């Protein structure tokens, strides 16, 4: 059976604060560690009132300091927003503080809208140089060689596992070419999932970092004691996606039993969230098994934002039990 890991968006829910969201992320990471999850990732998003992980490396440090075994990392760092040297220094520092536990997933999207991109002082042209930027970043992690005038300190020689993230065929080709593990964002952009997996596995070239292809897939999992309760909890995510598509992102709303969405919006959300398992323990166990059988995933990155933090913890308990 595939390994399970956690992708946490550090959700800021209605009625709470960013501070509470960050405390809850640490609490979830400790919970996941006890449950045997393999890794705990946080994602870079900007100008999103409902997501508290914009300063991703800082939040990773917060989580890593409060845990001891679970791998911690970024899913991901949006490389067009950053100079590769500064990313190497940040994650090299994390690796020094928490040796053998640090992952760095790299994406080529900005994780922001056009106005926010301008505020970040970076531009979409950076996406065109993504392969070169990844190669540069990998170079900063190499040991220092004689005559090298610039080095990442910390960073040079750091033990950091680097991943390519993607939601299209481009990332699959790049990960295969570079011999890096590949994580596909099927939890919100599943359209090219099967094609990307096929391309990555068929074209994979072994590298010093990875000898065999390794695929991790995002999967929304909302689990509760009953199917009906899980469906109710899932309405928070549906509302959040609807608000985002309508240009009004905000804090995560509470569940809504009588949720009614515009049919066109509802259709788009259903497509985006088609890789979701929502239900009680039996349905979740079967749904996860079916998804792994369909995709052949080596690992699943489970994401499950729930408005009530205690119910979010319980959701991850049920998911973990499903592969026990």
Would you give an account of this structure?
The chain has one domain (3-219, 284-321): TIM Barrel (Alpha-Beta Barrel). An eight-stranded parallel β-barrel has the order 1-2-3-4-5-6-7-9, surrounded by nine helices. 47% of the residues are buried. The protein is globular. Helix 2 packs parallel to helix 3 (84-97) and helix 7 (169-178) packs parallel to helix 8. The chain has helices at 18-35, 56-65, 84-97, 114-119, 125-128, 130-141, 169-178, 193-203, 227-245, 263-272, 281-295, 309-321; strands at 3-8, 39-42, 71-78, 102-107, 161-166, 182-184, 215-223, 276-279, 299-303. It is built from twelve helices and nine strands. With 324 residues, it is α/β, with parallel strands linked by helices.
Q: Could you outline the blueprint of secondary structure elements for this entry?
A:
Layout: E1 3-8, H1 18-35, E2 39-42, H2 56-65, E3 71-78, H3 84-97, E4 102-107, H4 114-119, H5 125-128, H6 130-141, E5 161-166, H7 169-178, E6 182-184, H8 193-203, E7 215-223, H9 227-245, H10 263-272, E8 276-279, H11 281-295, E9 299-303, H12 309-321
Parallel strand pairs: 1-2, 1-9, 2-3, 3-4, 4-5, 5-6, 6-7, 7-8, 7-9
Helix pairs in contact: 1-2, 1-12, 2-3, 3-6, 7-8
Entry summary:
It contains 12 helices and 9 strands.
